[in-house]
Amino acid sequence: DEAIQWTLDNCATYGGDPKRVLVVGQSAGAHLGSCVLLRKGLDELNEATKEAPPSFPLESNPLRTQYKARDIRGFMAASGPYNIKAMQDIFHRHGLDRNIVSLMFGNNLDRHSPTHLVEQCRHLCDRADGSLSLSLNDVLPPFYIVHGTADKTVPYCGAEEYSSCLRDAGVRVTSKNYEGWSHTDPIIERPMNGVHTFHRDVYDFVRQWASAGVGSK
Q1: Three-class SS of residue 83?
Q2: Minimal CB count within 10 Å: which of 100, 139, 170, 173?
């Protein structure tokens, strides 16, 4: 979160355009980027409604940075875990004890699960019953979710669930599966063998969403 704020505040010094900043994350980066942007969107929705649904516990600790999620022109997430509660047993089988996972996330796995954060946003919008002038699409940038179908570290069904969750909530989302690719194929094995499909997708994503008129507020 603070890194994004720093980039927006300082990129012009290095020749960048703060109005054309995009975020790309792979694996944990996809998870963290999702959490940050969804938390920022939730903060904005909370601020707009000022009324939390009593039947649904909303995130009560807003982020301290000043930017809005829509200040980011687009977010590309690759090979990420988006439902930490569902991933707990998988992490355990891979050697990361479920008790350690609970401790890492403060015994609140929902708070750190992007799919749950999307549901929080949806419940808040539903609770407003049409009185809220903002939708989730108004406060979030477009998302691009990519995943390898042979990923045994983070099964790609989680990416499909996350994409559907975002789409059902009204977020602009594009999804793509890399057939037969593992968790690290996009960034290690395939590029080492001269296959740059993922990098081409990143390039196309940056070029499209950083162009004039796309993702503008």
Answers
A1: coil
A2: 100
The candidate with the shortest Cα–Cα distance to 78, out of 177, 207, 179, is 177
Give me the helices (H) in the chain, please.
Answer: 2-10, 28-49, 84-93, 98-104, 114-128, 136-139, 157-168, 189-192, 197-209
Contact (CB, 8 A) for 87 and 109 = no
Q: Tokens standing for 191?
A: 């590029």
Which has the closest alpha carbon to 43: 71, 65, 73? 65
Average pLDDT over residues 165-178: 95
CB 135 within 8 A of CB 66: no
pLDDT, mean over the chain: 88
From CA 177, how far away is CA 180, in angstroms rounded?
9
CA 19 vs CA 1, 141, 148: distances in Å: 17, 12, 31
Question: What is the rounded distance in angstroms from the CA atom of residue 6 to the CA atom of residue 114?
Answer: 23
